Amino acid sequence: MIGMFDSGVGGLTVLRSIRQYLPSADILYFGDIKNAPYGSKSREELSVLLVAGLKVLHERGAEKIVSACNSVSASLAISLFDALEIAPAHLIEMVGPTVAALRDSPERIAVCATPATIRSGIYADAFRMVGKEIQNIAIEGLAGAIEFGAPEAEIKKHIEGAFTGKSDFDLLVLGCTHYPLAIEAFGTVLPDVKIFDPAEAVAIRARRQFWPQEVGDARTHFLISKESQRFRDLTSSLFPNQKYTVEVLE
Ligand code: DGL
Questions:
Q1: Is 147 exposed, middle or buried (CB count within 10 Å of its CB: 0-12, 13-18, 19+)?
Q2: What is the CATH number of the domain that holds 234?
Q3: Which residue numbers in the chain have pLDDT < 50?
């Protein structure tokens, strides 16, 4: 079984792609809504939440992990094998597959993400390793606004605010898994920029690393750490023809 992890609804955008590449895998998804949003938290806080979240998945039998949350990627550098016996080959995070997919891209790249992801420097470092300098753009408050279903105008305001005066890039990486849920607003604010959603690159990596071991019965079970009608509504609109179960962790 594959365990997926995010602060809330963001990882659903990654799950949507994973379902295309691993249709029969059994998936357990944990959305830590009680502690969302993650993107304004410190690295120390995120490391604690990450290990707690992975422990939930591990105890329920997930042997493979897709961390569908960029904000915790820097914390994954801790030895998860020592903490939870998760082997590196059994773990996929967002940054590596994204940078690998864009390493030969001729475009000038910008990455937008939560303040926690940008502050960690993880995208800038990873792109530098393949010889690319990128622009880093933190968007304050956007992931939380998406998580809790803020009105369209508020979502647009967050995006406009972050991009004012920034124009010298042709390709924008959505370095937060919540952001593809606002992809239309990004398109309106930045009509001439190519927008890159890392979900597919991560799903391709998941298939490469986890198939054929992860052939199952196509079960999807969602665990959420707090009741959320928004989570339930989004899951039913993103996965209209799929059977799944939702459980609220007390
Ligand atoms: N979706 C997560 C990410 O990719 C977390 C966003 C948040 O909770 O602030 O960073």
A1: buried
A2: 3.40.50.1860
A3: none
Known active-site residue 176: yes
The atom of ligand 1 lying closest to the CA of 11 is 1
- The pLDDT of residue 16 is 98
69 is catalytic: yes
Q: Is 37 in the pocket of ligand 1 (CB under 6 A)?
A: yes
Whether the CB of 98 sits within 6 Å of ligand 1: no
Which tens digits make up the pLDDT trace of 86-126?
Answer: 888 899 999 999 999 999 999 999 999 999 999 999 999 99
Q: Which of 33, 94, 145, 176 is catalytic?
A: 176
pTM exceeds cut of 0.90: yes
Same domain, 53 and 72: yes
Q: Would you mind telling me the total number of residues written for the chain in this entry?
A: 250
Give the domain extent around 115: 95-198
Task: Give φ, ψ of 227 to 5 degrees.
Answer: -60, 140
